[in-house]
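Hey L., structure's done. Input below.
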Amino acid sequence: MGRHDLRALRVHQSANRFLATDKIKKLPNWHSVLGAIPPAPTLVRTQPLQHKSKVKQARLGSRKASKLFQPTAIGYEEDALRETFFGDHPWELARPRMVLENDGRDYQKDDWSRIAQPRRTLNGESVVQRQMWLQDNVPGMSSAKAYDQARKEFYRLRLQEDVQRMVAQEEALATGAYFHKSALEVGMELEDKQFEEWKAWAIKEIQIADQRRNAMYTGQENQAMDMPAGDPETEAAIEEVSDVLPAQGQSAQGGARVMPASQQ
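Output:
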């Protein structure tokens, strides 16, 4: 068999042979599928199609062996337009979107000669498709001019939606409707609550740090200051060491004590 394992190519034949010799009682579930779609008879992978121009391919030269069988990258013109729009409007990605379609051909029912579509909610993709239509159908329309025009139409419709939403809310409030807190208000309350908890924790940590810093400088001096002045034990201890300690204003001298001649 060499370096290649060819047993997988004969799985269907082996299953038929095992059934004929009563080694298996019934055929596996994959038997019919493998018979209809057999594995490839060759182990050599074909090179994928290169979606590049001959001039660019000649300039780049031959591809490396490790990259030879990798599929080429597929890019669309809309990808660059989407990157530009959502780079300028990142919060548009946070808006909920409906990605389901009825029959997979909803895009064929859209008329991008105007940005507003009856079957589609206004979003960033509307700007991209409107810009594409302007570039392809308006003579002399550059990409920058088409982008500016599509953005202006998008802003105008978004402003109309905001005004309609505000008017509807005011009408509902006038008729006795009650609205709960908005997502922004709930978020601010949670942020304030978290800040107060952090503030209490920070004050407690500062107090603990001050206590530890003050405890580092407490020693015998502070203990001596705490001793009462009229304590008998304290006065007796001072009298015992008063003869040995030098008098006030007299510096202590080291070395052996010199006795007078009359005492020797």
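The two ends are 118 Å apart (CA to CA). The chain has a mean pLDDT of 80.

-- N.
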